[in-house]
From TrEMBL:
Coiled coil: none annotated. Pathway: Amino-acid biosynthesis; L-tryptophan biosynthesis; L-tryptophan from chorismate: step 5/5. It catalyses: (1S,2R)-1-C-(indol-3-yl)glycerol 3-phosphate + L-serine = D-glyceraldehyde 3-phosphate + L-tryptophan + H2O. It comes from Paraburkholderia sejongensis. This is Tryptophan synthase beta chain. The gene is trpB. One of its GO terms (molecular function) is tryptophan synthase activity. The modification N6-(pyridoxal phosphate)lysine is found at residue 98. Residues 64-388 form the Tryptophan synthase beta chain-like PALP domain. Tetramer of two alpha and two beta chains. Belongs to the TrpB family.
Amino acid sequence: MITPGTAYTTEGPDALGQFGRFGGAYMPETLMPALHELRGVLAGAMADPAFRGRYRQLLTDFVGRPSPLFLAKNLTRELGGAQIFLKREDLNHTGAHKINNCVGQILLAERMGKRRIIAETGAGQHGVATATVCALFRMECVVYMGAADIARQAPNVARMRLLGAEVRAVHTGTATLKDAMNEALRDWITRVDDTYYLLGTGAGPHPYPQMVRDFQRIIGEETREQLLARCGRLPDALVACIGGGSNSIGLFHPFLAEPAVRCYGVEAGGLGLASGKHAACLSGGRPGVLHGNLTYLLQDDDGQIDDAHSVSAGLDYPGVGPEHAQLFESNRVQYRVATDDEALAAFHWLTRGEGILPALKSAHALAFARRLVPTMTPEQIVVVGLSGRGDKDMATVLHHQGETV
Ligand SMILES: *Cc1c(COP(=O)(O)O)cnc(C)c1O
């Protein structure tokens, strides 16, 4: 439903799954009935208080929500600008925000009577979260993962296997997240009757972008309540990193109707936009269709998908969720980049400064906050989405310092 007279509405997508001109469901005919069924079941579930109650209960008992909103006093004092609050998604069970979405989707799979779950994963965080909820619900779990990512993320591969998941290596393309997603979609086409595809970010065909957003909105809803209780007001700015765009849309969405709250999405700038080696789809890409939706993509002049680069595995996806494409063009959210070097520096800054090891992905958001905060005043408030913890990135960080674990 579009509210007349406003440039941006928080009520998207429309009936076709479009956020403005972005989104949609560009999928093979064989998957259309499954997507149609999923939309129907999702709408019923979201309107069912019993379903919402079970989702909330699991977030409380199993995930450990609400996650704290932490005032980073040391960093705030050091920069001398706005107060910095961290929304601690790193403290969730399995160490990142991904589990919020997995809890919601496994409940949907159960409601649909599907007992075989498939997923794609990049750095392995979504694979671990999926394997975790599959163990909890005693469902079969197959995770597709690029062979290059398997080599880079051994601890998460071990976690998935211990949790009972089958990790299938994908060797096509660059053997990373995009290729894993291709393979998961291929699997779904062949086994659509008994299989639920548990997608990990706000991308893919309708209804996935909307569904993942609505299961991640809890991040922003809690932030709003926690800040109102503590400071009696809304934040001046929100900052979150952008992979496919799920932790950021979850944080931003409950604030989008408040024009005074500025939102910043931080893309992975890799070696810098000018180098061509980055993963900044909005700042350095063009609209096109990938994995079932129209959005901004990294592509060459012929429309071939370009390889994405980032120091952080899983931020190297060449696309971004379609709602972000709309937020970008409508200017409601500002998109910035942080380079590999800036993210690594921000990793150390938070680790030494507050005793919190962030995920390298989250460190991209911190890197931008570090630039933004000094331009603001001490009465102002910035909330940074700390999407995950950094244990699994330690080998990468040490490698960049010329050390080994
Ligand atoms: C997966 C992941 C991201 C990126 O994915 P989004 O869908 O953009 O949130 C960011 N941070 C962490 C810790 C992740 O695991």
